[in-house]
Amino acid sequence: MNTHPYLRAYLAGVFIPTLVLPLLLTAFIVVRLAMQMPFPFERGLVFPMALVPALWGLWNVLWVGTQGRLHQPLGVHGALLPFLLMPAGATMASCLGLLALGDNSVTWFHVITIPYTWIAVCFAGALAGYYLVWKYIVGFLNRVLGIA
Description:
It is built from 5 helices and 3 strands. It is mainly alpha-helical.
């Protein structure tokens, strides 16, 4: 009998972003409508809403597929995902005109300026967060689904 481990791995991977991203979208829309911010940040949500859940699922499938050969801990594997997501998101935002790269900072929507040092600190926090989510939540789901 075929137990479809890759399908179960994909479903375990998409679980967290599928729950979190609609909540973030709701929060952004409420802030946009309540505070009436003048810049269209909804355009910047298309990339995460469309691709991040699928990439999480495929990343978990990749971990399951290489489990017999690499023996990489799931938390470390998950912490590598921001190294793909951040450049892809920055490239997409730059192509859409949502992001402008400067000498010392990044400008979002021609309004918000963020220094590179702050981006580095946030990226380090994202790595830690991804490590913990993948180690404990995705790892738990993988064990429940019998693929870990």
